[in-house]
Each structure stands twice: as structure tokens, then as C-alpha cells.
Design brief:
It is a single chain. This protein has one domain. It is mostly helical and 127 residues long. Helix content is 83%, strand content 0%. The longest helix is centred in the middle third of the chain and has 29 residues, at 60-88. It has helices at 2-28, 36-56, 60-88, 99-126. α3 runs antiparallel to α4. The chain is built from four helices and no strands.
């Protein structure tokens, strides 16, 4: 299990460095960052490096962490989608964004939120 932690940590560092380079290039020319999914995958790898020890045992605590993380993430995403709808509303909104970028943003947020919630609940249930 120690080996999988190291692999996830190395993958997370590689993806984070790649995301910084890709997003930095897009942001430096004033465009929407195309590498948001890389940031979400880096967060996922770092969270899995922490969670690998908790998920190694197939017990009810690991199952509870998974269930609670996904369940609470649903409510976070409903809230985020509501805020995004307010921001892109043609009458009230102040953001103009393409459908591709909006879906990329929602997908990236969902991946990050699910794994951050699982990490929080693993920390909470281990104490």
C-alpha cells in the first residue's frame, strides 16, 4: 500500500506541474484556462495518496467514507450549479462563457469536490 501512495503522489506532482504550465500559458494571453481538468486530476491524485491507506481495508468505514463523500458532493454541486446559473444568466449574470468551458468547469469542480469530501470524511472518521 505504501507503493500506491508514492505512485499517486508522483502522479499528482506531475499533473500539478503540467497544469501550472498549461493554465499559465492560457492565462498569460487572457484566455480561459483549458487545463482545469488537469488541476482536478492533480487534486484527485493527492487525495487518493491520502485515501489509499483508508481504502485498503474493505471494511464498513471505507464504504461509509465513499458513500458520505459522494452524497454530500451532490449537494455541493447543486449549489455550485445554482451559482453558475446566476453568473451566466443573460439578465443578471456578468460572465460570458461557452458551453464547452462551462462543462469543463462543472466536471473539474465535481471531481475535485468528490475527492476532497472523501478526504475530509476519512480524516473525520479516523479521529
Amino acid at each position: 500500500m505504501k507503493n500506491s501512495r508514492l505512485i499517486f503522489l508522483i502522479l499528482g506532482v506531475i499533473m500539478l506541474l503540467n497544469a501550472i504550465v498549461v493554465n499559465g500559458a492560457f492565462l498569460s494571453v487572457g484566455k480561459f484556462p483549458e487545463g482545469l481538468m488537469l488541476v482536478a486530476l492533480a487534486i484527485m491524485c493527492f487525495c487518493l495518496a491520502y485515501l489509499s491507506g483508508h481504502f485498503a481495508a474493505k471494511d464498513e468505514r471505507a464504504q461509509k467514507i465513499r458513500e458520505r463523500g459522494v452524497y454530500i458532493s451532490y449537494f455541493w454541486m447543486v449549489g455550485m450549479i445554482f451559482i453558475l446559473l446566476l453568473c451566466i444568466n443573460p439578465y443578471l449574470g456578468f460572465i460570458t462563457i461557452s458551453a464547452y468551458h462551462l462543462l469543463t468547469l462543472i466536471g473539474s469542480l465535481y471531481i475535485a469536490v468528490v475527492f476532497l469530501n472523501m478526504t475530509y470524511y476519512a480524516w473525520k472518521y479516523s479521529n
